[in-house]
Amino acid sequence: MKKVLVFLMMAVVACSMLLTGCGGGEKKAAEPAKVLRVGTEPAFAPFEFPKKDSNELTGFDVELIQAIGKQMGRKVEVAGMGFDALIPALNAGNIDCAIAGMTITEERKKAVTFSDPYYTSGLIIMVKKDNDAVKSIADLKGKRLAAQIGTTGEMKSRTVEGAKVTTFNTQDEAALELKNGGVDAVIGDLPVMEYYLAQGGDKYCKTVGEKMEAEQYGIAVKKDSKLAGEINQAMAELKKNGEFDKIYKKWFGEKK
Ligand code: ARG
C-alpha cells in the first residue's frame, strides 16, 4: 500500500513538472532566438509570391531577407498573413520583422521601427486598356477605385474627392475587380503593377500618368527594437560585398 502511495506521489510530481515545463524545457526555449520570424503578405510579385507549383515563397524581399538572415547567422522562417495584420503581429511579438514592400510612412513610424530603406517605389494608376478618359489622379474624382487594404494605395485613393473606394485583401484581387469592370481604376505600387502587366495583365489593363511621389520600402520591426540596427548592419555588409546588387539585378535588371 505504502509503495503504491509513493509511486502515485512521484507520478503527480512528474506530471506537474511536465506541465510547468520544468526540466529540459529551458534548453528548448533558447533555440527559437536563432530563428528570424519574418512576416509578409505573399501575393505581391515580384517582391513576395509563391514559386510555381509550390507553397514556397520567392521574390526580391524573400531573397533579401534570407540573405540578411544568413549574414546575421539566423535561420529565416517566413509566414504569410494579411498586409494589415503585419504591424499588429509585430506588436504582439508573433514575428520579429516584416518585409512586404512596406512603405516607410510617418504614420507607420509611430507604431513600428523601420530599417534603412532598401527599395525606391511609388504609386501609379491602372485602368482598363480602352479607358482614354483617365490621364491622372485629377480624372478620378467621383470614380470607383480599388486598392489593397491597409496600403498607401488605399490611403491615396481615399484622398480622391467623391471616389468610392473598395479595398481587397491582395493587389491581385484589386486588379481582378478592375478587369471585371467592378471599378474604374486601381491605385497601387508601380513595380507590382508593371510586373502584373508584363505577366499578361496588359491584355486588359494599362497604367496611366506619372509615378506619384517616391516611396521607400523598409523592413519593419517592433517599435524601438534593436533588431533594426542588426538588420541595417547586415544589409550594409550585403551592399558592400555585392550580394545586394546581385539580388536586385536578378529581379529588376540593372539599377535605373
Ligand atoms: N507599398 C505599399 C504600402 O506599404 C503596399 C505594400 C503591399 N505589400 C504587400 N506585400 N502586399 O502600403
Give a structural overview.
With 256 residues, the chain is of the alpha/beta class. The protein has two domains: 34-118 and 218-252, 3-Layer(aba) Sandwich (D-Maltodextrin-Binding Protein, domain 2), CATH 3.40.190; 120-215, D-Maltodextrin-Binding Protein, domain 2 (3-Layer(aba) Sandwich), CATH 3.40.190. Helices cover 38% and strands 24% of the residues. Strand 2 (49-50) and strand 3 form a beta hairpin. Helix 3 crosses helix 9 and helix 3 runs antiparallel to helix 10 (243-252). The longest helix has 19 residues, at 2-20. Mean pLDDT is 91; it is low at 20-26. The chain binds arginine. The site of arginine has 14 residues, from loops.
